[in-house]
């Protein structure tokens, strides 16, 4: 005897955020195997696939494409123990089900290494939006995997989604073009407004760091790290320096609650990573406080590669207690305030590294020397930290960077 099986949005993968149904991968009346992907869900961080909980036929879609859904929400129902057939689907789907004609079914394709299951949901979506086939895009990821950057590079013109002319909205005025909001962009915007305007009073302190010692250490150890297969980036040094600064000012690794400041014992540092054409994600280095520089560099390298291959999972992005935004990689000298990643209490900004004239004193004489420097900022939730704590954090951070050994 057949039975109905609910398909729900896993609560443990979304961490309390709202999400949107992006695309159903099969239609009403089509069969699915257990653990095969049924639907793509886009959050403000990543796109995930929800698999079939059992073998069966899709008989009801409760959440059509474009529907906002919360963790634990009912998405669809399967009927287990029946074969895929149009008659079966029509006879069994319940009230409110989406008709088979309302759900676009995937066109049949010939499986090739590039067109098989190696593509992430975001890559498949971009290929469809831009009218590209997987075979026409060169994959630069591991094993020839196609990344988001590969699709963007293969798309002529702007990075905006390709919209059929018949469906394109009229421009507001001559010379104006629309870039429709993606669900990720909408949620990033809501998160930023909530953090800056409704939740935390933001205050920023600015210091300058002389990176001479760090650059010398990196030059001496870079080849060793490359032999291990892990790049030694400057960001790894900033993560290690933040660990020391957090130990000096634990409140920087805390969150506000109505009756207490909740200090996190473990230091889980998120690193802001831009996804071209999509937005910003923050993969998390777990227990950075328990790692030496080598461990931090290796973990950071793995996360960055996963981000480039569009292979990050919700687990890679959850649970951060402090965040670093290395905005200097794109040329910015100072950014203030950098919006705090709620519910954290602080975020470090790292500006562009460049040679600057610095006044030093030797044997009582002042000299002007050229040093590689960058501005570093700490934006704090003023409910959790005061200015003197922010300055203590930054003093510790800069001292660690300038006396690296």
Short note summarizing the structure:
By secondary structure, the chain is of the alpha+beta class.
**Sheet with the most strands, sense and barrel status:** 7 strands, mixed
Following the backbone from N to C, one meets helices and strands in this order, namely EEEEEEEEHHHHEHHEEEEEEHHEEEEH
CATH-assigned fold name of the largest domain: Chloramphenicol Acetyltransferase
How many H/I helices? Answer: 9
Helices and strands, with pairings:
Blueprint: E1 3-8, E2 19-24, E3 31-32, E4 37-42, E5 47-51, E6 56-61, E7 68-69, E8 74-80, H1 86-92, H2 121-129, H3 148-154, H4 183-199, E9 202-210, H5 212-228, H6 234-248, E10 254-256, E11 261-263, E12 269-271, E13 273-275, E14 279-281, E15 284-285, H7 293-308, H8 314-317, E16 322-325, E17 346-350, E18 354-362, E19 365-381, H9 387-402
Parallel strand pairs: 12-16, 16-17
Antiparallel strand pairs: 1-8, 2-4, 2-7, 3-6, 4-5, 6-8, 9-19, 10-11, 12-15, 13-14, 17-19, 18-19
Helix pairs in contact: 6-7, 6-9
Structure, explained:
The chain is of the alpha+beta class. It has 3 domains: 100 residues, OB fold (Dihydrolipoamide Acetyltransferase, E2P), CATH 2.40.50; 45 residues, Dihydrolipoamide Transferase; 220 residues, Chloramphenicol acetyltransferase-like domain (Chloramphenicol Acetyltransferase, 2-Layer Sandwich), CATH 3.30.559. It has 9 helices and 19 strands. The strands form 5 sheets. Strands 9, 12, 15, 16, 17, 18 and 19 form a 7-stranded mixed beta sheet that branches. The longest helix has 17 residues. It starts with a strand and ends with a helix. About 11% of the residues have low confidence.
């Amino acid at each position: 005897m057949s039975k109905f099986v609910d398909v729900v949005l896993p609560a443990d993968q979304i961490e309390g955020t709202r999400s949107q149904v992006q695309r159903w991968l099969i239609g009403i009346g089509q069969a699915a195997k257990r653990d095969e992907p049924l639907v793509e869900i886009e959050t403000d961080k990543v796109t995930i696939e929800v698999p079939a909980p059992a073998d069966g036929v899709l008989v009801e879609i409760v959440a059509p494409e474009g529907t906002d859904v919360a963790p634990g929400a009912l998405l669809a129902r399967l009927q287990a123990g029946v074969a895929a057939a149009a008659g079966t689907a029509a006879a069994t789907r319940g009230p409110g089900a989406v008709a088979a004609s309302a759900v676009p079914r995937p066109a049949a394709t010939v499986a090739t290494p590039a067109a098989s299951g190696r593509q992430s949901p975001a890559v498949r979506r971009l290929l469809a939006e831009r009218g590209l086939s997987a075979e026409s895009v060169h994959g630069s990821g591991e094993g020839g995997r196609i990344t988001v950057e590969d699709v963007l590079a293969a798309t002529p013109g702007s990075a905006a989604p390709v919209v059929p002319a018949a469906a394109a909205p009229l421009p507001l005025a001559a010379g104006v073009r629309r870039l429709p909001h993606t669900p990720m962009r909408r949620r990033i915007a809501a998160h930023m407004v909530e953090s800056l305007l409704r939740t935390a009073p933001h205050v920023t302190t600015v210091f300058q760091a002389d990176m001479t010692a760090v650059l010398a250490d990196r030059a001496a150890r870079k080849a060793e790290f490359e032999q291990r297969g892990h790049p030694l980036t400057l960001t790894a040094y900033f993560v290690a320096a933040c660990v020391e600064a957090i130990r000096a000012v634990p409140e920087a690794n805390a969150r506000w609650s109505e009756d207490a400041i909740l200090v996190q014992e473990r230091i889980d540092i998120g690193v802001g990573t831009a996804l071209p054409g999509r937005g910003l994600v923050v993969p998390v280095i777990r227990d950075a406080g328990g790692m030496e520089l080598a461990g931090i560099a290796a973990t950071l390298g793995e996360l960055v590669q996963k981000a480039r291959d569009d292979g990050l999972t919700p687990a890679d992005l959850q649970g951060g207690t402090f965040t670093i935004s290395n905005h200097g990689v794109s040329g910015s000298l100072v950014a203030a305030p950098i919006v705090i990643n709620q519910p954290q209490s602080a975020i470090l900004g790292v500006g562009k590294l460049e040679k600057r004239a610095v006044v030093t004193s030797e044997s009582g004489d002042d000299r002007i020397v050229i040093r590689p420097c960058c501005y570093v900022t700490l934006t704090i939730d003023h409910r959790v930290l005061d200015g003197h704590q922010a300055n203590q954090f930054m003093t510790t951070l800069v001292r660690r960077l300038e006396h690296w050994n």
